Amino acid sequence: MNSLQVDRILFISDLHLSSSRPEITALFLSFLKNRAREAAALYILGDLFDFWVGDDDPTPPRHHVSSGIKQLVETGTDVFIMQGNRDFLLSENFANECGGKIINDCQVIDCGGIPTLLMHGDLLCTDDLPYQTFRELSRTRQWQENALGKPLWLRLGLVRWYRMKSYFHKRKQAIEIMDVADKTVWQYCRQYNVSRLIHGHTHRPGYHNMGNSEQILQRYVLGDWGESARILALDSSGIRFETISLNTSGEFNCQVM
Q: Pairing mode, if any, of strands 228-235 and 252-256?
């Protein structure tokens, strides 16, 4: 378990950066130059990119993003990056390029004496059996070597096919199946002996106080990014959600919720 300075830690996830949504890239780059520089550490809990098909893909905004993160790291903020369900092929090469560090699917940190489990969140959605089957397969070395061994043009085409398949799969599933399973949340929290969980993936930001008088679990869910974004901030005064956005003049705004 990593023991970190409790003061000034930020958590974000599900940016889904891509060339088709430049406004989100603009918000993220502004965030890196403003609010993130006040933090001692920034945790990106998965799906920084909408897809990642390999280190040889120069598709924007890859280089703008890595450059922005590198500039943040050079100011003294540590950046930790978790792979998500969209960018699970993100490698140490990208982390080295931007000065960050890839962390595990389940990362425990000690925040001011509170053991906190960090996850992307897809592992918690165990009622979605077809996805969990694909997830297990796609994390094998054989599958990834086979995927990355294909020409770049083919990998980009396969991404479009997988996204379309995922879209129709989600439309056929009940909302409850796409959300986390409470029993699985408790399973991971007991396995890692934690009383706080922070994750993304579901795009349903909020706070959940789970349990009873004998055992309480704090579950914070990060949201996806759009014209604005909800981030989670932890410092000596406590933990809270903040909303960030760009105004019509392109100026960065941050408000405590």
A: unpaired
**Quick one: tokens of 135?**
């997830």
For residues 89 and 167, is the Cβ–Cβ distance under 8 A?
no
Contacts of 182 (CB under 8 A, 6+ apart): 210
What distance in Å separates the CA atoms of residue 246 and residue 31, rounded to the nearest whole number?
9
49 DSSP assignment: B
Q: Quote the pTM value.
A: 0.92
197's enclosing H/E stretch is: strand 196-199
Which residues have C-beta within 8 Å of that of residue 127, sequence separation ≥ 6? 176, 177, 179, 181
Domain annotation for the chain: domains and CATH numbers: 2-256 (3.60.21.10)
Sheet of strand 216-221: strand arrangement: 2-4, 107-111, 114-118, 196-199, 216-221, 206-211
Enter the tokens of residue 181. 């399973």
Q: Quick one: tokens of 170?
A: 């989600």
The tens digit of pLDDT for each residue in 22-51 reads 999 999 999 999 999 999 999 999 999 999
- Angle at alpha carbon of residue 42, lines to 41 and 45, rounded to 5°: 140
HEC profile of 96-124: HHHCCEEECCCEEEEECCEEEEECCCHHH
**Cis, bond preceding 61 (omega within 30 deg of 0):** yes
Q: For residue range 44-60, what is the model confidence (pLDDT) as tens digits?
A: 999 999 999 999 999 99
> What token pair was written down for 23?
């406004």
Cβ-Cβ contacts under 8 Å for 56 (sequence gap 6 or more) = 152
